[in-house]
Specification:
Order of helices and strands: HEHEEHEHHEHEHEEEEHEHEEEEHEEEH
Low-confidence stretches: 433-463
Largest sheet: 10 strands, mixed
Radius of gyration: 23 Å
Strand content: 15-25%
Shape: elongated
Length: 463
């Protein structure tokens, strides 16, 4: 399908297809990544999304592209390694949207948290605790090993109280040390998602992506798609159906086969964020992110965001992903967390100019503390049976940083199911509009107080 094709032309192409080797349901970043990987192999997959591309969790992220420092504490070293590799790939391949971000962690003690961190690592405790400078330095040293092996970010630094106060005079009295390191952030995740769709259709003209097209029913062999704008219905027989529904995976599985054969796959949690207009706090941050533990030990973030400040987030179990909004109690909780680290900076609720939230599609878990639920991704294959003639591949979990790797894994599984082999990889492919064709950091047009200019202290961003 040509990139400049109209929606009617795309619908016309769909009308002519009664079968498809692969149907991907869900236009979040993981579904889009799988679509792109398959298109690079020449597979004419069809991608459908019931709303806008990246409209749910993929558009409600914290805007961080990070290696997952805190995953070290739960022993997910493979996930951290993978995240660092993919973070650095995005810094290279999507340099028009992904930028380095200097991050500071305020610390209140030297040796705290070592015993409890060991207990959490061994799965003997879910209890949150404050992490001391020695524990954080240990984690950052491991982080540096991966960073230096797979990228070129500067090493971490740990500062004593005098140096910390010199840089952060407004920190609360409890802050005795600080540690700084680099991760990354993304300025326009939805745009990058759309560029990946363009990449796919350019690589394979028979690949077809349509949003505002919802899977409404299934009869065991065929599925029915409905155009949300016109009401027109389309019947399609897929060989493989990829369920990339995110927080809606279980709902979609029940629509495909309304029986008790499918076990619960998703145990989503809601993450709410605030955008506040506060020039003093913006000036204080001076281009950096503060990554801190609030009074109950939950990790929170704040960093500059297009002349405002982004604050987050919450982590609340939810059963209905369609009903989530940022509640008043969450606003108060996030502002109270901010006061914990900057007690003398008054941030009234009236400074909140925008709120957003999404449901993390985490795997179903019995963990007592949401922060202990794995952020890793997995594939669940439901082979053909009496209820459905096609293979059903469910994409569970995942996060923005590792979308390419997850898409590659999903595509490889699909290729095996349809008897094809991979011939190309997206690992080193820039997105459709790469950094050489767009403006470099600090020169994004139409974005006053562009946050990309805040990273000029990192030499790689001054080229």
């Amino acid at each position: 399908m040509e990139n400049n094709a109209t929606r009617e032309q795309r619908l016309s192409a769909l009308r002519q297809r009664t079968t498809s080797p692969v149907l991907i349901v869900g236009g979040g970043i993981n579904g889009i990544s799988t679509f792109r990987e398959l298109a690079l192999q020449g597979i004419p997959a069809i991608l459908v999304e019931k709303g806008d591309w990246c409209q749910a969790a993929s558009g409600a992220l914290s805007r961080m592209i990070h290696g997952g420092l805190r995953y070290l504490e739960t022993g997910e070293f493979t996930l951290v390694k993978e995240s660092v590799i993919e973070r650095d790939r995005l810094l290279k391949n999507a340099a028009h949207y992904v930028f380095p971000l200097r991050t500071t962690v305020p610390i209140d003690n030297l040796g705290g948290g070592l015993i409890n961190a060991t207990r959490r690592f061994l799965r003997l405790s879910d209890k949150p605790t404050r992490r001391g400078a020695l524990l954080i330095k240990t984690g950052l040293s491991i982080y540096d090993v991966y960073t230096r092996q797979f990228g070129s970010m500067p090493k971490h630094q740990v500062r004593g109280e005098a140096a910390t106060r010199d840089r952060w005079p407004a920190f609360a009295p409890w802050v005795k040390y600080s540690a700084s390191y680099y991760d990354a952030w993304i300025c326009a995740p939805e745009r990058l998602g759309y560029e990946l769709i363009e990449d796919a259709e350019r690589a394979c003209p028979d690949a077809l992506a349509l949003n505002y097209l919802q899977l409404v029913s299934a009869d065991g062999e065929s599925v029915t798609l409905q155009d949300a704008l016109s009401g027109e219905r389309f019947t399609l027989q897929p060989h493989v159906l990829v369920n990339a529904g995110g927080a809606w995976i279980d709902q979609l599985n029940q629509r495909l086969a309304p029986t008790d054969q499918f076990s619960k796959l998703i145990g989503g949690t809601k993450g709410s964020h605030l955008i506040i207009d506060h020039p003093d706090l913006l000036h204080l941050l001076d281009g950096e992110m503060v990554y801190f533990e609030n009074q109950e030990g939950r990790v929170c973030i704040m960093f500059p965001w297009f002349g405002k400040v982004l604050l987050g987030s919450t982590d609340i179990r939810v059963d209905d992903p369609d009903s989530v909004v940022c509640e008043e109690a969450e606003k108060a909780y996030i502002l109270e967390s901010l006061r914990f680290v900057f007690p003398n900076i008054v941030v009234p609720e009236s400074s909140i100019v925008y709120t957003f939230c999404g449901v993390r599609p985490l795997p179903a878990s019995d963990a007592k503390v949401n922060g202990q639920i794995s952020r890793n991704h997995s594939l669940v294959l439901l082979p053909p049976d009496a209820a459905h003639a096609y293979s059903l591949l469910c994409l569970v979990g995942g996060k923005w940083t590792t979308f390419r790797q997850f898409g590659e894994e999903a595509a490889d599984r699909v290729l095996r199911l349809i008897g094809e082999n991979a011939v190309c990889r997206a690992a080193n492919c820039p997105s459709a509009a790469d950094a050489t064709s767009l403006h470099r950091p600090g020169k994004l047009r139409g974005l006053p107080n562009s946050p990309s200019s805040i990273h000029c202290r990192y030499p790689a961003c001054r080229s």
